[in-house]
Amino acid sequence: MADTNLPIYMDYHATTPLDRRVLDEMMPYFAEKFGNASSLDHPYGHDASVAVEAARERLARLIGARSGHEIVFTSGATESDNLALTGAMDAYADRGDHMITCVTEHKAVLDTARHLESIGKKVTYLPVDRHGHVSTSDIKDAITDRTVLISIMTANNEIGTIADVKSIGGVAHDHNVLFHTDAAQAVGHIPVDVQDMNIDLMSFSSHKMCGPKGVGALYIRAMRPRVRILPSMHGGGQERYMRPGTLNVPAIVGFGKAAEIAQKEMPDENKRFQKWSTEIIDALSERAGAIHNGDPDNRLPHNISLTFPGIDGKAIINSVSERIAISAGSACTAQTVEPSHVLLALGMDAEDAHSSIRIGLGRFNTEAEVGHAIDAISGAVKDLRRISTLA
Ligand SMILES: Cc1ncc(COP(=O)(O)O)c(C=O)c1O
After folding, report:
1. Choosing from 54, 103, 332, 344, which is the catalytic residue?
2. Catalytic: 332?
3. Backbone dihedral angles phi then psi of residue 304, each to the nearest 5 degrees
C-alpha cells in the first residue's frame, strides 16, 4: 500500500474529493475573473455570467433537461429539496394541500415534510419493501383529489436502492400530480434523464460528484407542464426570483466541469464499481458473515451496505479507521445513537441496524485499495467476534 494515503477514503456517499480538473477550471474565477454574474455592464460581470450559463448548459446535458433555463442554482441538495417541496406546495395551494413521500427519504425531504405538516399541509409517508422499494400501486392508492406533489428519491443514500422513477413519474402525470425526486446520490453516478423519467422537479448536488461543496441545483420543468414554485427567500432577482442572492461563480463553474466529467466517465467508472462492490459483498459475506442490504439488482454500483449480525457497526468502523474511512450510514445522522430509519424501514430490528456499515466507492479508489478494505474489515470483524465470545 506504498502509494496510498491512509486512511483510504471509501465514504463517497457522504462527500467526494474535488477532482483536480474541476479545481483547475474553478481557479481563475476566484481572483482574476471575480465579477458578479448579475453585473452585466462591464466585462468582469459579463465573463462571470457567461461562465455561469455555460455551467447551466453542462448540467442540463447531464440530466437531459431541455436547456439550462430549467436549472436553478442553490447551495446543495438540502436547499433544493426544501425549495422544491415548500415552493411547489405554496405555488399550487389552490389545487390542494397533500403530498406523498416515503419513509426512507433523506432528512432533507422528511424534515421539510414535517415542516409542511406543521403549517397545515397533509403528508402521506409510504412504507418500503425489504429491498427499499415503494410500491407504485401504494402511490396510486394514496393519491387524492387534494394531492399536489409526490416526492420519491431516485437512489437511497444508505442502501443504494434505485427506485423505478420512470413509473412513479408516470403515475404522477396520469393523475395530474407533480413529481419531485431527490437525486443527490444518482446524478453523476447513473444515467438520469428528466424527460424520459417523467420528472418535474429534481434536486442534486455538486459535492457528491467530485465537484466543490456548497453548490447544488434544482431542475424545474419548463414545459408540459410548466412547473411553478414560490421562493423561500426574498431579496433579489437572481435565478429568476426563485433563489435570490449573488451567485457563487467559482463553485458553479466547478459544478459544471464535474458534471461534464461525470457524463463522460460514468460508463467506465460503473463497470469498475460494479466489479469491486460485488467482490467486496461476496468476500465479506464469505469471510465475515456479512448480509447485504438493499436491492441486489437495482442498486448504485458504488454502494455497499452490510450487516454483521452480533457485531457493533461502530466498533468495526473504529477498528479500521486508521486504514479505511467508512461510515455507519447517512453522514447527516451519523452522530446520533438512533438506529438508521432506512434500515428499520426494511424490517430490520434495531440491533441489526446498529450492526451495519456503509461503504461508498468512488473515482479515486483502486483495485489494490479494494483488496485492502476486504482484508481490514474481515480481520476487524473476526477480532471483534473473538472478543465477544471471550466476554
Ligand atoms: C439523498 C440525499 N439528499 C440530500 C442530501 C443533502 O445534500 P447536500 O449535502 O448537498 O445538502 C444528501 C447528502 O447526504 C443525500 O444523500
Report:
1. 332
2. yes
3. -140, 115
Q: pTM of the entire structure?
A: 0.97
- Closest Cα to atom 11, ligand 1: which residue? 78
**Sign of the dihedral through C-alpha 372, 375, 379, 380:** positive
pLDDT in tens, 35-76: 999 999 999 999 999 999 999 999 999 999 999 999 999 999
Q: Which fold has domain 8-17+266-390?
A: Aspartate Aminotransferase, domain 1 (3.90.1150)
CATH 3.90.1150.10 domain residues, the chain: 8-17+266-390
pLDDT at 389 over 90: no
Fold annotation for 20-260:
Aspartate Aminotransferase; domain 2 (3.40.640)
Contacts of 66 (CB under 8 A, 6+ apart): 60, 195, 222, 223
Asked if residue 185 lies in contact with residue 211, where contact means CB atoms within 8 angstroms, the answer is no
Ligand 1 binding site (Cβ under 6 Å of any ligand atom): 76-78, 106, 108, 153, 157, 182, 184-185, 205, 216, 331-332
332-340: long-range contacts at Cβ-Cβ below 8 A with a sequence spacing of 24 or more? 332/106, 332/107, 332/108, 333/107, 334/14, 340/158
User: How far apart are alpha carbons 50 and 286 in whole angstroms?
Assistant: 54
What is the per-residue pLDDT across 339-363, written as a single tens digit (0 to 9) for each? 999 999 999 999 999 999 999 999 9
| CATH 3.40.640.10 residue spans of the chain | 20-260
Q: At residue 2, does pLDDT exceed 60?
A: no
Cα–chain-centroid distance for residue 314?
23
Residue nearest to atom 12 of ligand 1 (CA): 184
Cα-flanking dihedrals φ and ψ of residue 150, to 5°? Answer: -115, 135
